[in-house]
Amino acid sequence: MKPSLPQGTRDFSADIIRRRRFILDTIKDVFELYGFEPLETPALENLETLMGKYGDEGDKLIFKILNNGLDNPLKKEEIQKGFNKILEGKNEKNITERALRYDLTIPFARYVSMNYGKLTMPYKRYQMQSVWRADRPQKGRYREFYQCDADVAGTNSLISDAELALIYQQVFRRLKIDVDIKINSRKILAALAEVCGGSDKMSAITVAIDKLDKIGIEKVKEELIENNLSVQQISVIESYLQIGGSNDEKLTKITTLLNNVETGQKGIEELKIILNYINEVAGQSSTSSINIDFTLARGLNYYTGIIYEVKAKNIEMGSIGGGGRYDDLTGLFGLPNIPGVGISFGVDRIYDVMTELNIFPEDINKSTTVLFFNLGEKESTVAFKEMQVLRNNGISCELFYENAKLDKQFKYASKKNIPFAIIIGSNEVEQKTCIVRDLLKAEQQTIPVDNLSSYFR
Amino acid sequence: MKPSLPQGTRDFSADIIRRRRFILDTIKDVFELYGFEPLETPALENLETLMGKYGDEGDKLIFKILNNGLDNPLKKEEIQKGFNKILEGKNEKNITERALRYDLTIPFARYVSMNYGKLTMPYKRYQMQSVWRADRPQKGRYREFYQCDADVAGTNSLISDAELALIYQQVFRRLKIDVDIKINSRKILAALAEVCGGSDKMSAITVAIDKLDKIGIEKVKEELIENNLSVQQISVIESYLQIGGSNDEKLTKITTLLNNVETGQKGIEELKIILNYINEVAGQSSTSSINIDFTLARGLNYYTGIIYEVKAKNIEMGSIGGGGRYDDLTGLFGLPNIPGVGISFGVDRIYDVMTELNIFPEDINKSTTVLFFNLGEKESTVAFKEMQVLRNNGISCELFYENAKLDKQFKYASKKNIPFAIIIGSNEVEQKTCIVRDLLKAEQQTIPVDNLSSYFR
C-alpha cells in the first residue's frame, strides 16, 4: 500500500514548524503583553453547537463524525431511518452527533455561555488552534488550517477596539512586515444604507462594496442597479467610496455626507475616539499606518461596530488579518447582551508573505548545535560522556549513531544544519582533548575536553 | 439552547494551559537538547492509512469522518449501498474515507514512507499532538487527548536506546518528579517463551506477565495453566519473575536462567551495553533510577527489543511513560527494513501527578503584570499612554476598560492574579506621577511616571 494524505491537508516538517512557531510565538507574546489569556477548546464539538451558525454554505462545509457502533443489530431499524435522513440532506443524531471545529468564534461563544458565572469579565481570551472546512482545496486554501484569534467579551469600551489595532501594529512590526491597517465602522455603512434607500439595503450595499477591490467601481455600480438602487443613491455611494485624504480629512468629509443620520454620527464619533487613543501612542512605536478606509466592508458577517482589515504592503496577497466589533456574542446560546470585539491573524498567508519577502530570521533553521563524530566503540563511549556534559549545560548535541565514514557523518551535519562537529579519535582519547570544527567557517582547533562547556558558553 | 461539550472532551482554561505548557515545553526542550526535530501531521488521515493497524478493538475506536455531499441525488444508489455496508460493520469509501489520528506512530510511519528519499537518516523526530479514540470516557481517560512521542528511525545503534532512557531521566528531573524507569528486553521474553514451550507461547506469556501488577502471581499462574503451560514451565516463569537484586545481580541471574538460548543472550548483551552507556554518565545527572525489571512486558504491541516503562514514586498512578524498540516501522507502507526505537510521555497523567504532589512552580499562574486603574476619561487617556510605554518595554499590562468603582477594579486584578496596580488620578495627572501598588504585599508608593519602566525592570 502506497500511503497518501487526504486532499487539503499537510505534514509540517521541522523547517516549516520552526518558521510557523516564530509567527505563532510572536503573536502569542503580543497577545499576552496586552493581557489576553489562552483558551483551548476541543476539536470535537456537538454538531448542534455548530449547525446553523455559519449560513447554509458554511453548514455544508462542516466535517461531521460518524457515530461509532452503527453495526449494532439491535438498532438496525433506527440507523437505517437515520441514513435515509442523511440522504435527504438532514442531520440525524443516530448517525452523526459530533463535528470538527469550523472556526474559533463559535467555540469561544459556547465556552463563555457555559462558564459565564466563573469567568473574570471582561474576558480577554486568545486562541490558536486548527479548524477544519470541507472546502475545495486550492492554492493557499486548506481543509485543515490554523486560526489565531483574540477577542474581548463583555465590554463596550472602545479602549479594547483601540488596543486590537495596536496589537496588529506590534505583531507586524515584530515580524518586520510593513502593513496597511484599514479601519471603518459598520455604523457608517448602516448610515450610508439609510441615506440610500433604507436599512433593508444594507446587506446588498455591503456585499457590493466588499467586491470593489476585485471587480472595480463600474461593476459595483451595476450590482447596485440590479439591487434596485436609484441613480441618485448610487451617486451618493460613489462619492462615499471616493472619500480620500488624511484620516482627519476623511472624518470631516464623512461627517458632511452623513450629516443627518444619527447612527452615522455615532460611528464617526467612535472612530474618532479610537484614533485618538492610537494617536496618543503614535510615534512611540510604529511605521505601520492605521488608515480609515470607507471602502472596507468585511462581507456578510456579524460585525456591528468597528471593522478592521490588514494587508501587507509591497506584495500581492489577500488580507492577512481582519476583525471587528459585534453586539451579541452568546445570544445564540441563551446568554444575551454580551458584546465583543476581536481580531484574527491569517497564519498561512503571513507565512507566505514572509517567505516571499525572505524576512524570516537568518538562524531560524538552527537545529542541534553540536554533532559528535563516531570513530569506534571506545572513542564513542568517551564522546557519549562529553556530550552529556554539554547537554547538562544546555547545549544541544547528537552523537552519530554508527562508526560510519567521516564523509557520511559530515553530510549528516550539513543536512541537519548543525554548525559544529566534535571529533574524538584515539589520539584525542589518550590526550584528553578533542577537535572542535566550525562547519560554517571550515576552521578547527584542538582543545582539552574539560574546556568544552566553556568553549560553547 | 443550552450548549455542552461532547463526552470525553475538555476545554482548557488559562490556568490549566499554563500548567500543561510547562510540562510540554519541558519535554520539548529536552527532546531538542538531544537532537530531535519536530514533526506535525494532520488530524485527518485517510481511513485506509489507519485501519488494521491497531487490532480489531482499535479499529472500532477510530473516529471516522462522514463524507460531504451525501445528499447528492445523482449518487443516491451508490450511497444507499454504502450505508448498507456500514450497517454490516464494513467501511465504505462512498460514506467515509477519512478518520481522526488515533496515535502518533502510524502517522510517523506514513510520513517516513512518503518522504524517505528526502529525510536525513537516521531520522530523529518528536511529535506532540492530539489524538482521538472513541473509548468509553472515565476518570483520566478522554476521547481527545495529547500524545508526546520521540522516535529514532533507521538505526539499530543502541546509543539511541540509551539516550531515550536519559531523556526520561532529564525530563522528570526538570519536572521534579521522582521516577522509577524500568527497562527490559522483548528478546529476553522471547527466550523465556522458548524455554517454556516454544515461541508460539510468547504472546500468552507476555499478556499474562503484563497483568502481574494488577492480578498477582497466583492469577498469572492460573492464566498460564489455562494456556496449557506445564507445571515445570510455569515454575521457570515464576523464578524468572522473582529475579531480584541490583542490575548487575539481575543480569547474572538471567544469564544462568536463559543459559542456552541465543535470543536471550543477545537481549542480555544489549541490556548490558545500554546500561554501560547510562552508567558512563550516571552521577552527572540524576537521582531517578534506571532499573532492570523482568516483570515488565508492555502488553501486546509491536516491540521487539528494549522496552521501557516509567512510574512516579510516592504516588498511586499508572505508568507516565513507555516505549521500546521495534524492528519494522514502515513495512506496512511498503518500505521494509526501517528499525526504530521510541518513547512516549503521558501528559495527562503527568499533570495529575504534579497536581497531586503540588510541585508546579509557584509563579505558574502569573498572567498580566500590571493593571492600570481607570479613573475617568482624561485620566485613562494618560494611563493608556503610560501603559504603552511599559508594553514597549516588554511588561504586560491592561487598562481596566471602564471607570468602575475601585472595588471592582481591585477584584478584577485579584481574580486574574495581577500582582501590581497603577493608579493615575487627577492629582497624579497634574503632578506627572502615579501610585504603584504591590497587591501581594499591600504596599504602595508614588513615583514619577517617567520612572515606571525602570521600576519594573
Automatic annotation (TrEMBL), chains A, B:
Gene Ontology molecular function terms on file: ATP binding; histidine-tRNA ligase activity
Catalytic activity: tRNA(His) + L-histidine + ATP = L-histidyl-tRNA(His) + AMP + diphosphate + H(+)
Source organism superkingdom: Bacteria
UniProt-annotated binding residues for L-histidine: 103-105, 133, 147, 151, 298, 302-303
GO BP, sorted A to Z: histidyl-tRNA aminoacylation
Keywords: Aminoacyl-tRNA synthetase, ATP-binding, Cytoplasm, Ligase, Nucleotide-binding, Protein biosynthesis
Subcellular locations according to the entry: Cytoplasm
EC number(s) reported in the record: 6.1.1.21
Record-annotated Aminoacyl-transfer RNA synthetases class-II family profile domain positions: 1-356
InterPro entries: aa-tRNA-synth_II, aa-tRNA-synth_II/BPL/LPL, Anticodon-bd, Anticodon-bd_dom_sf, His-tRNA-ligase, HisRS-like_core, HisRS/HisZ, HisRS_anticodon
A GO term from the CC aspect: cytoplasm
Family: Belongs to the class-II aminoacyl-tRNA synthetase family.
Subunit structure of this chain's protein: Homodimer.
Name of the protein this chain belongs to: Histidine--tRNA ligase
Organism the protein comes from: Ginsengibacter hankyongi
